[in-house]
Amino acid sequence: MIRPISRAFFNRDTRRVARELLGKVLVRRDGDAMLTGRIVEVEAYLGENDAAAHTFAGRTLRNAVLFGPPGYAYVYFIYGNHYCLNVSCEPDGRAGGVLFRALEPLTGIEEMARARGIDFQKPSDLRLLTSGPGRLAEAFSITRGRDNGCDLTSSKSSLWIGDDGFRARGVRLTARIGITKASDRNLRYLLGGNPFVSGPKGSTVPRRKK
DNA sequence: ATATCGATTATCT
DNA sequence: GATAATCGATATG
Fold it and tell me: Is the pLDDT of residue A119 over 90?
């Protein structure tokens, strides 16, 4: 049994949302296919007070969803190759979003592998499906054209976020990955010890305060 | 196991 | 015209 998360859940401080999204489930319904993955790693991006956030310089056409009401998908395209998924947080008018960085595949693994163009040889290949923001977007066929602005709080959406009763254990807080600005802030949340968390080993330790 | 590098394009200055 | 919240391949210890 899995049920959607309320909009009120996202209408809060972005860091709190990020922390509590761990253990929830991303759902893609596509005709017959039902893809699901447990959220095991996310990052918080704090609107206009965060130099690493797309919203740092104010509202533009691209980032408009992040300034809008909470609980909607913000999808951006990066490096000419990859899509990445975020969910808008904070009340309407205030910017904030959580980036989905890694999932643990639960159902629809065949479909994910097909979308990723991966042929299974060994069990460790499972990590290649959804371990990384670009990878999970590809596994779930997430694109800006298709999904940007999608309501992630409704099970009527093709893409939504659900709660299946799982309780997150061993939450860790570390520096964010792959950014050049504000890289000293600990705004990455992950489930410690989960094999599907992305990034190099050792990146699961909080950055030491200078 | 870790490091470096090229790919490729929407977006903003 | 420069940049980027990444990935996968290749090189090196």
Answer: no
Q: In whole angstroms, what is the distance from residue A186 CA to residue A189 CA? A: 8
Digit-coded pLDDT (tens) for A79-100: 999 999 999 999 999 999 999 9
Domain boundary assignment for chain A = 3-198
Strand partners, A190: A41, A172
Q: Is the CB of A127 under 7 A from strand B?
A: no
Q: Which helix (H) or strand (E) holds A147?
A: helix A144-147
CATH superfamily for A3-198 is Methylpurine-DNA glycosylase (MPG) (3.10.300.10)
Residue nearest to nucleotide B13 (CA to C1'): A57
Q: Is any atom of nucleic acid chain B found less than 7 Å from the CB of residue A145?
A: no
- The DSSP string of A43-102 is EEE-GGG-TTSTTTT---TTTHHHHS-SSBEEEEEETTTEEEEEEE-SSTTS--EEEEEE
Measured distance CA(A127)–CA(A135) in Å, rounded: 10
pLDDT of residue A25: 98
| Strand-pair partners of A37 | A26, A105
How many Cα atoms occupy the beta-carbon half-sphere of A18 within 13 Å?
26
